[in-house]
Write a structure and sequence with these properties.
This protein has about 70 residues and is an all-alpha fold. The longest helix has 18 residues. The chain is globular. The termini are far apart. GO terms for molecular function: mRNA binding.
């Protein structure tokens, strides 16, 4: 998925749309663990998704270290 650019962009865009509906925190909690994946293209895709979510919607609910999430 991460190597196919068309699917890559669709997945990133759809994830950002979902974050618009349910909130960045809820999606971020789910995808942050994927940054530990061994596939570099996949980690880049996850990071791009996180960057787009935060740039569009902000990072309310994320602590200063970005490692814990408030309820």
């Amino acid at each position: 998925m991460a190597l196919d650019r068309r699917n890559y962009m669709q997945l990133v865009d759809k994830t950002v749309e979902i974050a618009n509906e349910v909130g960045v925190k809820d999606i971020l909690v789910k995808v942050v663990e994927d940054l530990k994946d061994e596939s570099e293209p996949y980690r880049v895709m996850v990071m791009e998704t996180i960057e787009k979510m935060i740039s569009n919607l902000g990072a309310s609910g994320v602590d200063a270290h970005g490692q814990r999430f408030s309820s």
